[in-house]
Write a structure and sequence with these properties.
There is one protein chain. The chain has about 220 residues and is mostly helical. Helix content is about 70%, strand content about 5%. The chain is built from eleven helices and four strands, in the order H-H-E-H-H-H-H-E-H-E-E-H-H-H-H. It has helices at about 5-25, 25-35, 35-40, 45-50, 60-80, 80-105, 115-130, 145-160, 170-185, 190-195, 195-215, and strands spanning about 35, 110, 135, 145. It starts with 6 loop residues before the first helix and ends with a helix. The relative contact order is 0.13.
Length: about 220
């Protein structure tokens, strides 16, 4: 299963594994480097990056790393390992920036996890290869990737608005935006080659900011 994993993907997984295990065993380390509104606003900006390598538990870590594994090669095959890493880190920071924007008046808001970065890779893969089919848990039929991407972001908006579960919906959404924008910057010809997909995948992003301007989220 893992015989075709790229060195860049291995490096990201290893970094997440090492930092997360340290956080599992050392609560002070976890608290020092997690995403937190108050400490970030007090100047600890590094938390916007370091929090993306911490995870709550093994299941959280495993889910994110498996998702990364399944979609990393799509991005690497189209953009190369260097740009794959750029998409990953830009998506991570974009997730943190959007979380900071939407939760700036919530001093006790905190979050951890690679979900923003991984969602950026997922959204980049969908934009690069929108015709691929995905299989979701408990649904034994293939679903077009772009449908999954749009549906996921619409659910993220719902989750942000209604505070559904103990999930960083804002970071997920910000990561997807980072992956979307960075991929288009790296491959601007997608605007002409996959115009419909570019527009469709932008719809949830437009909806989010319209709702924010209207004060609905």
């Amino acid at each position: 299963m893992f015989d075709n994993i790229h060195l860049a993907t291995i490096a990201i997984i290893a970094a997440n594994l090492l930092v997360s295990i340290k956080g599992f065993d050392d609560r002070s380390f976890f608290e020092r480097y997690k995403f937190g509104i108050s400490p970030i606003r007090a100047g600890e900006k590094e938390r916007m990056l370091t929090s993306g390598f911490l995870h709550v538990d093994w299941s959280h870590l495993l889910f994110n790393m498996l998702t990364l594994y399944f979609f990393a090669n799509v991005v690497i095959s189209w953009l190369g390992p260097g740009k794959f890493l750029a998409v990953y880190f830009i998506s991570l920071v974009a997730g943190s920036l959007l979380a900071l924007f939407f939760h700036k008046d919530e001093p006790y808001y905190s979050a951890v996890g690679a979900s923003g970065a991984v969602t950026g890779i997922l959204y980049a893969a969908i934009l690069l290869q929108p015709s691929m089919n995905l299989y979701l848990f408990f649904i034994p039929i293939p679903i077009p990737a772009y449908v999954v991407g749009i549906g996921y972001l619409l659910y993220s908006i719902y989750g942000m608005k209604n505070r559904v579960g103990n999930i960083g919906h804002t970071a997920h959404f910000g990561g997807a935006m980072g992956g979307y924008i960075t991929t288009l910057l790296f491959m601007p010809d997608l605007l002409f080659r996959e115009t419909l997909m570019v527009i469709l995948l932008a719809i949830p992003i437009a909806i989010l900011f319209v709702l924010e301007k209207m004060g609905k989220i």
